[in-house]
Amino acid sequence: MTSSRNVSARQQQDLLGANEREQSALRRNGVIDKLFEKGTLTLALAVLVLLATIMGSLVAAGWPAFQELGWSFFTGDRWAANIERFGALPAIYGTLVTSLIAIIIAVPVSLGIAIFLTEMCPVALRRPLGTMVELLAGVPSIIYGMWGVEVLSPFLRDHFPALFPAGTGLTTAGLILAIMIIPFITAITRDVMVTVPPMMRESAYGLGCTTWEVVRNVIFPSVRGGIVGGVILGLGRALGETMAVTFVIGNSLFLNPTLTGQGTSIAALIANQFPEADGLQRSALLLLGLVLFVITFIVLAIARLMLRRIENRAP
Amino acid sequence: MNPVYQRRRRLNRFVMVLCLSAALFGIAWLLMILVSLLIEGLPALSPSVFFERTRMSDGGLGNAILGSLVMTALATAGGSIVGIAAGTWLAEYGGRSHLANTIRFINDVLLSAPSIIIGLYIYAIIVLPMGHFSGWAGAASLMVLIIPVVIRSTEDMLLLVPGTLREAASALGAHRWWVVIRVCYTGARAGIITGILLGCARISGETAPLLFTALNSNQWVFNLNSEMPNLPMVLYQNMTINSFIPAKVELAWTGALILTAAVLILNILARVISARKG
């Protein structure tokens, strides 16, 4: 022991079997290790920079409009660029109402499909049908918008003229959004429902429960957070959706506090007016974008927190 | 039979019928969309659609398809590099630290942030300073959209690589970066590719972020510094400002069919790759 502690550096190298070339290789690899870690960290931090610059650029670009208009921006019930009146209320109202209609229609249907897929459907059909739902969740939103304006809104106008005189409007937009988010919510709900251990399900069946009782008393309570998270995620999608809504919402810029009337949403208003906007109007639209970002950020944050909680609880 | 049993059975049957009809209802809507895509889109589908450029009254979609391909490819390439690197840090170095958890959370939120906001953002930081719309700005906005998808899937897939593999490689004397690149990436390759393909499918149908970044053009454009034609924008314009021309609407449906087919093929490809691995 003593002798090995007293050997020279040169001898130590020999003992370790490291010659000069290997030493430099060790050093080089150490440097690469550091660079690799720091490099990937830098790009990971880019995510935070991204969020900060999104917020920052919208605030900076929307600030002139806020200075000019003040809080009347949020309370004004009319958006008229030609007389420089920019009230965000019609757009905010349209965004919230269309998303709410979409959620009210989509949630029961999605839950029904998810229960069907996990509990009732013949095993041979489960995978193909589940895959189909996932594929449909990936269809671009503009396709839904085109279908809405070409097929759904003429259909509504011809068959329910009392409710939909023009075929377009807030409810039509809500319907299209619902059709769009059904596959999305179904996919998430199905995913969390299959995480329930088969043992729990089978013991409930063994006690004599009916399928519905198993779903209601065993599966739903154990994945409630995940389902709610998925629904809120769908809500977040509906709130920020542009293309599915723009075609069919009617693009009326007055506050029209009905459910089936024409209206607009934040995203639709931006999509329609931004390309030709300038000066105060452009700034006001960017401020509107900030409002949408803040609303969806809060909604998505809640959804993620709820989904994360269930992820952590799962073993 | 016991009346309690009967009541439970009736309730069960009632709810199950509701679920079945919900499934039929949902699937019927979605099938209707696909069927109308085929009915409206197929008649105008011909080779010339792919090779002719868009024109005021006639023409095909060739330049738009090319522009979309270029911007999507650029965005996917750039986004993959950033996303894989960031996902690697989260999975291999970040662990459960506060910083890593914050990045994860923000990434999850950005994952479903409205795409029109990303368009506004790129407009504010690229289009305004440059003074004009450009293909670069379009590609940048798509890149911002794909990065969170790749980060999420890369991290998830790297975490699936067993820790014992890393330990074995380290015990043989491999350095950390070598372990990550040769052992972890090899193990997670199929999953990471799947994530990239799914992200690619998502951005190739995005319209809203291109509205005020790439805009659109009727020409064959090979210069990313100018306005860039792209398929989603052609659909949007043909269905709005050009919707009074029947040929334009017909062309839009054909474009929609092509776009949907492309997105579905990417999705199926991603699934096949990940299934072969499993």
UniProtKB/TrEMBL annotation, chain A:
It comes from the Bacteria. Keywords: Cell inner membrane, Cell membrane, Membrane, Phosphate transport, Transmembrane, Transmembrane helix, Transport. Signal peptide: none annotated. One of its GO terms (cellular component) is plasma membrane. Residues 92-303 form the ABC transmembrane type-1 domain. It is a multi-pass membrane protein. InterPro entries: MetI-like, MetI-like_sf, Phosphate_PstC, Phosphate_Transport_Permease. One of its GO terms (biological process) is phosphate ion transport. It is found in: Cell inner membrane; Cell membrane. GO terms for molecular function: phosphate transmembrane transporter activity. The chain crosses the membrane at residues 43-66, 86-117, 129-149, 169-189, 284-307. NCBIfam families: phosphate_pstC (TIGR02138). Part of the binding-protein-dependent transport system for phosphate; probably responsible for the translocation of the substrate across the membrane. Belongs to the binding-protein-dependent transport system permease family. CysTW subfamily. This is Phosphate transport system permease protein. It comes from Kushneria sinocarnis.
TrEMBL record, chain B:
This is Phosphate transport system permease protein PstA. Its main location: membrane. GO terms for cellular component: plasma membrane. SUPFAM superfamilies: MetI-like. Keywords: Cell membrane, Membrane, Phosphate transport, Transmembrane, Transmembrane helix, Transport. It is found in: Cell inner membrane; Cell membrane. GO terms for molecular function: phosphate transmembrane transporter activity. It is a multi-pass membrane protein. GO terms for biological process: phosphate ion transmembrane transport. Pfam families: BPD_transp_1. Residues 65-270 form the ABC transmembrane type-1 domain. The chain crosses the membrane at residues 14-39, 65-93, 105-127, 133-151, 251-273. NCBIfam families: 3a0107s02c (TIGR00974). Belongs to the binding-protein-dependent transport system permease family. CysTW subfamily.
